[in-house]
Amino acid sequence: IYRYNIKCVCVCVCVCVYGNDCTKASAQSCGECIQVGEKCGWCTFENFLKQGESKSTRCDEVEALIKKGCPNGTIENPRGSVTVNQNKPVTNRKKDVAQTADQITQIQPQKLTLNLRAGEPQKFSLTFKRAEDYPIDLYYLMDLSFSMKDDLENVKNLGTDLMKEMQTITSDFRIGFGSFVEKTVMPYISTTPAKLLNPCTADQNCTSPFSYKNVLKLTKNGAEFNKLVSKQQISGNLDSPEGGFDAIMQVAVCGEQIGWRNVTRLLVFSTDAGFHFAGDGKLGGIVLPNDGKCHLKDNMYTMSHYYDYPSIAHLVQKLSDNNIQTIFAVTEEFQSVYKELKNLIPKSAVGTLSSNSSNVIKLIIDAYNSLSSEVILENSKLPEGVSISYVSHCKNGVSETGDNGRKCSNISIGDEVSFDVAITAKGCPSHGKSETIKIKPLGFNEEVVIVLNFICECECHDNGVANSDKCHFGNGTFECGACRCNEGRIGRVCECSKDDVRTEDLDANCRMDNGTDICSNNGDCICGTCECKKRDNPEERYEGKFCECDNFNCDRSNNKLCGGHGQCVCRVCVCDTNYTGSACDCSLDTQSCVASNGQICNGRGTCECGVCKCTDQKFQGPTCEICPTCPGVCTEHKACVQCRAFQTGEFKDTCQEKCSYFNLAIVDKKEDLPQPNSQPYLTHCKERDANDCWFFFTYSTGNDTVQVYVVKDPECPAGPDIIPIVAGLVAGIVLIGLALLLIWKLLMIIHDRREFAKFEKEKMNAKWDAGENPIYKSAVTTVVNPKYEGK
Questions:
Q1: CB 546 within 8 A of CB 519
Q2: Sign of the torsion angle spanned by Cα atoms 164, 165, 170, 172
Q3: 342, 375, 534, 550 — which has fewest CB within 10 A?
C-alpha cells in the first residue's frame, strides 16, 4: 500500500430498522397482541382508530399507543407475577436434636405459582442450606465374578467398620448389600450343566452364575450385614465386561425391596472390570430395550435374559428420578473408563479401589464428602416454549451463570447458598392450561414445585359482549374496544362474509373521486372499506377514508418534519405556538434577535423568523454587529478623542464641528476607567499619538448617548541615558581586549609546553655511537725491548 501510494477509503453504511414486533404481528385481538411480547399493549378505547386504520393498529408498544392518543387507563398490558405458596425456612439442625428426614428442610421456598406473560421473565430466588446430621442410606453393590474373590474377604467386615466411621457424619445410617455377575445366557456365561452349577475351575467352589441378587435390604444392623456377606460365594462368567448396569437399574427402581428412604441415597458400585450397555444384549439374542421397571422376585432379577442392558442415558434418568448418588469403586486399570462415565452421570464420584478392597471405607468417606459438598439444581422437563436460566451465588461471593449457574461447590455443613431463577414463556401452550415443573438439588429428596399459569387473554376479554350489535348485526363479540368476528366473518366490524362478498362489487367504494387508484395505492379494500397499509416506521401511518392522508409527507426544515415545531396532519404542517410557515420554520419569537446592548438587531435591521435581516448592507452577523469593512471603534474615534482631550491630532482645528457627538470625562489613572460589564456596550482603547505616546480611553454607547472616558496623562517613553551607554561601551571594548590577550597568552603557554615535552622525549630516545675515532692517535707510545725475557 505504501509503495504504490494507494489510499483506502472506508465507507460506513447506516441501515435504519423501523417497526417493532408488536406492529408487525398484525394482531386482531387483545389476546393475540399480549402474546407477541412483553412490551405490547392493546388500546381498548373504542374511538381510538382513525379512518382507514385496521384493528391491528390497537396493538403497539405502550408509549407508542399513548403518543397516538390512546387515553390513560384504556391500555391492556397485563404483567406476570410470582406467588410463594409454601415457604418453610431452611432447618438449623443440631446433632443432639432428634428430627426425622421429613422434618428437615434444606431448600426454600417449596412451592410457587408463576403467572407468565409472553416474553416477560419471572424471577425468584432459591436458598439451599446443607443440614447437619442428615440421614444416609448406603447400598453396597459388588461384582462377585471370580476376579473379586480377595475383595469379598475384606468386605465381609465392612458393615460394622463402616457404621463406626459414619457415626462422625450422621447418627442415622443404614446399609444394604447386593451382588451381580452377568446375564445367564451365552456368550456371557457357559450354559453347560456343569458350568451352570460351578462356573469356576474344578478346584474352586463357586456359586451358580446370576445377574443381580439383593442380598440385604437397607438396615441399621451392621452385624447382620457382616453375617450375610460372609455367606456369599464368588461366581464366574466368560467375558470381561460385567452386567453391572442391569444391577444398577434394579437398585434404582426397586425402592420398596431395597428399602430406600427419602434421605441421602448412596450407591457404591464395586468392580474390577468394565460394563455392558444397551445393544450388547444382541450378542445373546436379546433385543428388547430395558423397560426401566422393577423385576425382582425373591430378591433375584428374573428378566436378565429378556431385556437388554440399559443405556447410560436411561440410567442417568432413573438415578436422578430416585435421587441416588453413585460412587464407583474401581481398580486402577479401569479408572479412565469410569471417569468418563462419571462425566455423564451427575452427582457421581470415582474412587480407586485397591487390589483387595482394603481401602473401601476410606474411599466411601472421601467420595461422600466430595458429593455432599456440591449442590446441582435440576429441573423437570419444561413445557414447549418455556425456558429457564440460573445464576448461582456461592461461598465467598462467587457468582456464575449459564450451566455453571446451576451449581455450587465446596459447601460445608451449615453453609447457605442461593440461586436466582428466571422462567420465561415465548407464548401460550396450545392447550392453554397450567403446567407444573419441579426443581430439585441432585441427590437430595427435596424439591421445589412450580405451577405455571399462562396469561393468554386480557382482563377485558371476560367482559366481552357476544353477538354485539356493534359488530354488524351481531356477527362478532365486542371485546377490548374492538370486534372479534365470528367464524366466516371479516372486516373491521365483521361487516363482510368470506363466502358471499365479491371484491369487484366493492372496489368502487374504495376509489376517491371515481379515480382508478384503490385506496390511493396506500391500502387494501376490504369489504368496501379501505384498510391502510402499515409503514415500517411505526411513527408513520396512512389514514383517511381512502388512505389519502399521511403524517410523514409534509415540508421539512433542517431535515426535520415540520421543522420539529409542528405536526403533520394529512400532508400539511400544523405549527406550534410562535411558529409559522409551510415547514413551521419561521419563529415569531424576537428574543434571538436582541443584541447585547438590548436593541433588536443593534438598530440596524429587522427580525424576521427569529433571524436579523440587516438594512445596512455593510453590517452582518446574528444581530448586525459585524462590519468587516468598517474601522475599529478605537481607530474610528482616535482623532476626536485626541482633539477633545489633548487638543492635538488631525482634527485639532475642526474639533468643535466634527467631534461633539460624545460626552467626554477625564480620569486620573487607567484604574479609574470603567471596567468591562459595567456598561452594556463598552470598548477599552489604547492608541499612539505623533510623539509615540500612548493614551488610553473607553468608548461606550447607551440608549441615545455616547460616553468617552480618557486618562489625563499619556504615557510617553523616556529618552536614553548617554553616559551609562558610553561607559558600558568603553568598558566592554577594554574587557574584550583583555580577554583576547589572556586567550593568546594561554595558547602560547600551551604551545611551549607541548614543544618542550616533545624535546624531552626525543632526548630520551637518542642513541650515541660508542666506537673510537679512526683518525685519533694517542700521545703515548709504548716500545718493547726485544731482548727482554721477563726475568
A1: yes
A2: negative
A3: 342
To which H or E segment does residue 682 belong?
strand 682-688
What's the rounded Cα separation, in Å, for the pair 683 and 709? 10
* Inter-CA distances, 24 with 29, 57, 60, 62, 303, Å: 14, 10, 9, 15, 59
User: How many residues are there in the chain?
Assistant: 791
For residue range 222-249, what is the model confidence (pLDDT) as tens digits?
889 888 888 888 888 877 888 899 999 9
d(CA 661, CA 674) in angstroms, rounded, equals 20
What SS3 string covers 27-81? CCCHHHHHCCCCCEEEECCCCCCCCCCCHHHHEEEHHHHHHCCCCCCCEECCCCE
Q: How far apart are CA 356 and CA 331, in angstroms?
A: 9
Task: Kindly report which listed range (11-25, 507-521, 691-705, 707-721) carries the lowest average pLDDT score.
Answer: 11-25
CB 86 within 8 A of CB 110: yes
**Cell, residue 439:** 426443581
Q: Report pLDDT for 585.
A: 86
**Whole-model pTM?**
0.61
Contacts of 238 (CB under 8 A, 6+ apart): 187, 188, 189, 190
Q: Rounded mean pLDDT of the chain?
A: 85
Whether 162 and 364 have beta carbons less than 8 Å apart is answered as yes
The cell numbers describing 363, all together, are: 474411599
CA distances from 1 to 7, 10, 11, 120 (A): 8, 15, 18, 53
Question: Would you call 219 helix, strand, or coil by DSSP?
Answer: strand
Which three-class secondary structure state does DSSP give residue 130? coil
* pLDDT tens digit sequence for 378-431: 999 999 889 999 999 998 889 999 999 999 998 888 889 999 999 999 988 877
Which residue type is seen at 647?
Q
Grid cell listed for 8: 483506502
392 CB neighbour count, 10 Å cutoff:
24
Could you tell me if 443 and 325 are in contact, meaning their C-beta atoms sit under 8 angstroms apart?
Answer: yes
